[in-house]
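Moderator note: this is an archived Q&A kept for reference. The question asked for a predicted structure of one protein chain; the sequence and the answer are reproduced below.
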Amino acid sequence: MPEETETLKRYRDGQKDYRLKLRFIALLLIAGNTGTEIVAAAVGKDIRTVETWYGKYLTHGPDALNSFQYQPKRCFLSDDQLADMIAWVKKELPSDTKVICHYIREQTGIAYCQSAVAKLLKKKRTETTPSEADSGKTSVRKRTNRFY
């Protein structure tokens, strides 16, 4: 048990992110025979969160708690569909994201909300400048910088 405590201390001390450090502090408190309710209150987390951390530690070891292991959501549109949509936006210069949502639903059958479309465009850095708007189609609303 002392070697496990030393391992947890090394992980705690090696952390730069305080949220990950907090996990190891909680485990060290549990290793010191402090109840999970008291540990949860001490670190400001829900009891279930502390129990989840403890369970992960028991089953997978300290490395399982050493990162957030976040996996981003995949886009519902294929790469080709996304490229087609971006090309359409650059060509047509739609007035707002509602028009783009309708276009996506019409072309692919996939329903996106306006905020999701705005995030997609921001992620792909689709910019529409006044010079693009003036050379060709003009949009209903004059745009100054980005499509958000």
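Archived answer notes: The mean pLDDT is 83.
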